[in-house]
Amino acid sequence: MKLKLDLHPIYNRGGEIDKALRGIIDEAIRKKATEVEIIPGKGSGQLKKKVLRFLDQKEIKALYHRIDKDSKNHGRLFVYFRHR
Question: What are the extents of the domains in the chain?
């Protein structure tokens, strides 16, 4: 199962971005999704940096397996999960 989160509608609302990211991570764990696609968009890259900082937090990092940046589209990230 693959989930998708597009951050375009809330790009300028910091608190909502964190809630949306936490929500999609929790949903992926609950539904045992193997992959979450996060779309921060291309823009200036600030939103992507914010997403990467969020994902790099110790308690969040423990929840997923790895992150890939799309080589063809720098406006998206993939977060992969391993469920036991």
Answer: 2-72
Question: Cα(8)–Cα(22) distance, rounded to whole angstroms?
Answer: 16
Task: List Cβ<8 Å contacts ≥24 apart for 65-69.
Answer: none
Q: DSSP labels for 35-62?
A: EEEEE--SSSSHHHHHHHHHHTSHHHHT
Q: Which helix (H) or strand (E) holds 15?
A: helix 14-31
Query: What's the angle, vertex CA 49, arms to CA 45 and CA 53, rounded to 5?
Result: 175
Handedness of CA 33, 24, 26, 68 (dihedral sign): positive
One pLDDT digit (tens) per residue for the chain, 84 residues: 999 999 988 878 888 999 999 999 999 999 999 999 999 988 888 899 999 999 999 999 999 999 999 888 889 999 999 977
Let me know: does 19 contact 50? Beta carbons within 8 Å. no
